[in-house]
Amino acid sequence: MAGTQRYLRYIVFAFVCLVLIFFISSSSSVGQGSLKSPSEILKEQSASWRGSHQEEAHDSEKPAQDASAAKGSATTGTTLNTHALPPATAPGERMNATFVTLARNGDVWEIARSIRQVEDRFNRKFNYDWVFLNDAEFDDTFKKVTTSLVSGKTKYGKISTDHWSFPSWIDQEKAAKVRQEMKEKKIIYGDSISYRHMCRYESGFFFRHPLMLDYEWYWRVEPSIELFCDIEYDTFKFMAENKKKYSFVLSLYEYVETIPTLWDATKSFIEKFPQHIAQGNSMAFLSDDDGKTYNHCHFWSNFEIGNLNWLRSDAYLDFFNHLDQAGGFFYERWGDAPVHSIAAGLMLKKDEIHFFNDIAYYHVPFTHCPTGEKTRLDNKCHCNPKDNFDWNGYSCTARYFEINNMQKPEGYEKEHS
Ligand SMILES: Nc1nc2c(ncn2[C@@H]2O[C@H](COP(=O)(O)OP(=O)(O)OP(=O)(O)O)[C@@H](O)[C@H]2O)c(=O)[nH]1
Ligand SMILES: [Mg+2]
Q1: pTM (2 decimals)?
Q2: Is 304 a residue of the active site?
């Protein structure tokens, strides 16, 4: 009896199992019918995309009325803007000005980043031209990419060999020895020939390139810079209206090893050309002992907005030629930053040099973030005020304010680091 009961239990259990198997298999077959494999989904999506794309193409052949009617229906149920929006392009006349960049073909993506920032924050409203200069021919990629990003006209110039080579009077052996010594001392770019040509070119030639002769004002832009605030006004017009000739956003002390005799050459220039030294100049920015020695303060020239006619003046050219004859671009490693700064400091009146507190800027490794919360908020700045270099002990900007008897921007004490 017990054996029969056990058999019965087995039969009932087997029946239940069969029923369960039936339900499971029938429900999964329903699932198979509605679930799609990834490749099927992709196929369907691409078919539907093709369909709508073809419709769009078809639509574009329809009369304009239909297109606007379709547009109207797309906005139905949403709220249209009824407030006045700022004009896409700033109204008014433009100055005779251009951006200028010295670059190699290999810098294309780094300069693309810079251009995008300059355009977004400033130039899309003003559409100024952009001149690109190179010691080699620019390739098609460089031209294509940069032209697509610049809202003004783009121009591409090759630098002539005599502006990018050793002058005849340079002793090649002496120059090579210096490069070797600087390499051993691990001085940045100390052994580089091209860096020296670059510094000499930026010091004495870029403003004389045939493409630059069409312009009076320039704004220098280097690869991989950042702008952190909107610039709503025409900076070139500001310079002109306020009789400014040179401007900066960051200042600091130069690496002494690169310019041991630059001040000696400057002093002999002052002796030889006293007529070029301006009354009311910024000597106190450059020297703590009325010109006996250089304190190494300079404006950081990777950002510059300036007047090209000043750089093309006899005064500036006499200064450049005097330095070039001394040979320090090759026997040392004179940078264009101290060269421009000493020239501006001695040959311009104090108030012809402008500090743009409101142009927030980064070039590795320093940031100028405007002092004063109001300025930062008004101009939609996205820099961290803590990164501002201006009131750091290695900056010369406080000195600039002091020698000009200018009040430091509001909030300076709070942001003093
Ligand atoms: N055509 C060309 N441009 C150069 C050459 N060397 C530097 N430049 C450009 O000259 C400018 C200054 O060079 P950088 O390499 O940025 O020099 P730097 O700012 O002192 O140093 P970084 O910290 O490297 O930026 C940049 O716009 C460079 O693209 C070169 O050999 N040929
Ligand atoms: Mg640079």
Answers
A1: 0.82
A2: yes
